């Protein structure tokens, strides 16, 4: 990768052909490394350690515009740490993270501005219990991003209506099911039209009976062209909904390809062992 900094600019533009990672593009969309395309997200040799514990060991991959990528791996493989690094909640020790052509790990770049371009939903809903749904959804857009109150409420009601929850706008979190609360959290993350949506194990805290309604919403977001990176243990959903699978094993990218290539056809012994565990073989 060649990096070039323009005079007086606090960002670097990606030049050349980018990372030489093996990627499969089943959607037929423009590759981010072509002269006419640009990755929404690019990770270049990202490393993160906590003392002597090396969690991420040179992670590199791209995400294309409108692509849904499932980040898989066993507990402790570095998935959640990687998500936090992408959202700048954790600082990388080495490597670079690019968002739509801007290196957001560049210390000259305002991290708050970078975070405003990324929507994040964690496994815990983090809704304010003393605020109704509409207030929970609009608070950040108004207070943090400066959106006009009327504009924010109109947009929130439109998004809630899209997922069949407009009638719950006045309800409080304790009046909602876990699945409904998580869907509200997803709507909240969409209020600022993020360039990238991070979903970090968003079904792991839910009763199994409620998982389906959340995954259905993710499918709808995919159909609308949202660019998504989702860490998940829902293997069947990842196989059916993701355009691409990135498998992390021991802090490194072990696989990067289509669901069929990674989950069904890989001959890597570690990959086969990981998926056989979930298939109960």
UniProtKB/TrEMBL annotation:
Domain ABC transporter: 41-275
GO cellular component: plasma membrane
Residue ranges, annotated region (Disordered): 1-38
Annotated InterPro entries: AAA+_ATPase (IPR003593), ABC_ATPase_HisP-typ (IPR030679), ABC_transporter-like_ATP-bd (IPR003439), ABC_transporter-like_CS (IPR017871), MetN_ABC_transporter-like (IPR050086), P-loop_NTPase (IPR027417)
Highest taxon above the source species: Bacteria
Amino acid composition bias (Low complexity), ranges on this chain: 26-37
Keywords tagged on the record: Amino-acid transport, ATP-binding, Cell membrane, Membrane, Nucleotide-binding, Transport
Membrane topology value: Peripheral membrane protein
Polar residues compositional bias, start-end: 1-25
Any one GO molecular function term: ATP binding
Localisation: Cell membrane
Pfam families attached to this UniProt entry: ABC_tran (PF00005)
Protein family (similarity comment): Belongs to the ABC transporter superfamily.
Protein name per the record: Peptide ABC transporter ATP-binding protein
């Amino acid at each position: 990768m060649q990096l070039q900094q323009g005079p007086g600019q606090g960002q670097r533009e990606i030049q050349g052909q980018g990372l030489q990672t093996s990627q499969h593009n089943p959607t037929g969309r423009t590759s981010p490394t072509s002269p006419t395309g640009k990755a929404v997200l690019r990770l270049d040799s990202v490393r993160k350690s906590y003392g002597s514990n090396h969690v991420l060991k040179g992670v590199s991959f791209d995400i294309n515009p409108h692509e849904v990528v499932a980040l898989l791996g066993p507990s402790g493989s570095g998935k959640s740490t990687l998500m936090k690094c992408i959202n700048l909640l954790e600082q990388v020790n080495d490597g670079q993270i690019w968002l739509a052509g801007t290196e957001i790990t560049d210390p000259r770049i305002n991290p708050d501005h970078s975070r405003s371009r990324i929507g994040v939903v964690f496994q815990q809903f983090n809704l304010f219990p003393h605020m109704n749904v509409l207030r929970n959804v609009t608070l950040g857009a108004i207070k943090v991003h400066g959106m006009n109150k009327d504009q924010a409420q109109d947009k929130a009601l439109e998004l809630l209506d899209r997922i069949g929850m407009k009638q719950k706008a006045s309800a409080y979190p304790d009046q909602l099911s876990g699945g409904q609360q998580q869907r509200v959290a997803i709507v909240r993350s969409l209020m600022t039209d993020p360039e990238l949506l991070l979903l970090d194990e968003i079904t792991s805290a839910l009763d199994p009976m409620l998982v389906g309604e959340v995954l259905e919403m993710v499918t709808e977001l995919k159909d609308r062209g949202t660019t998504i990176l989702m860490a998940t243990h829902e293997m069947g959903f990842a196989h059916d909904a993701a355009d691409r699978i990135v498998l992390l094993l021991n802090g490194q990218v072990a696989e990067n390809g289509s669901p069929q290539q990674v989950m069904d056809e890989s001959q890597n012994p570690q990959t086969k062992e990981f998926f056989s565990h979930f298939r109960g073989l």
